[in-house]
Amino acid sequence: MVFTVGGIKGGSGKTTIATNLTVLLSKQGFDVLLVDADEQETSTDFTAWREENLQGEIGFTAIKLSGEAVRSQILKLVPKYDHIVIDTGGRDTTSQRAAMTVSDVYLVPFNPRSFDLWTLNKVERLVQEIRAVQATPLTAFAFLNRADPKGTDNNDAAELLQASEVFTYLPTPLINRKAYSNAASQGLGVVEMEAKDPKATTEITKLFEAINPLIVNR
Ligand SMILES: Nc1ncnc2c1ncn2[C@@H]1O[C@H](COP(=O)(O)OP(=O)(O)OP(=O)(O)O)[C@@H](O)[C@H]1O
Ligand SMILES: [Mg+2]
């Protein structure tokens, strides 16, 4: 299965989701390829920290691709891996479009703030454009990241995402927690931290569990 983590807003949590999904899938015994399709190379940095921390035993393969090569190379790599996770930059780029055309699943985190949510219609149009030209169906999931521990902003944002006819809304938000950035700076998934944050571990596990059956029942 090929997953693209995208959207057209910077800093929404794409790399956090892509790296944690890669770690979780590889921990389940799958042969996983993490593709950095963002010129900022944040997931490449993550892999470098991981190489250093785990003495090379990182548990997955990582490469960097950009532009149209994202599509042509992934098509060649699909038979070689159980799962491919593509991390993209926060803009509507050739790389992100190329990634979407070879993906089964498109994951878009939204922060519950108006600037993020304003991009919803644009991302919906992007998904529709890709669906119009893609041979295989593209399942698109939207969910909240960096959600507030309390307050009404989450509910307002959730209602907006839920109303989307393009995205399937996942009611499994990730709350704004230090554990995510702490884990990332060590090249680890939150489930791998020595001093685990049980809440972060539970919510990231729930998020990915929510994706599984929906893919199967598509
Ligand atoms: N749920 C969360 N709680 C706390 N911090 C988070 C959470 N999700 C992401 N972050 C932090 O927010 C910052 C941006 O996250 P991340 O790099 O994953 O976003 P991105 O969408 O990949 O950004 P870019 O558009 O620059 O590629 C990082 O410092 C990350 O550690
Ligand atoms: Mg990123």
From TrEMBL:
Source domain of life: Bacteria
Protein known as: Chromosome partitioning protein ParA
Segments forming domain CobQ/CobB/MinD/ParA nucleotide binding: 4-171
Pfam family name, one: CbiA
Provenance organism: Siphonobacter curvatus
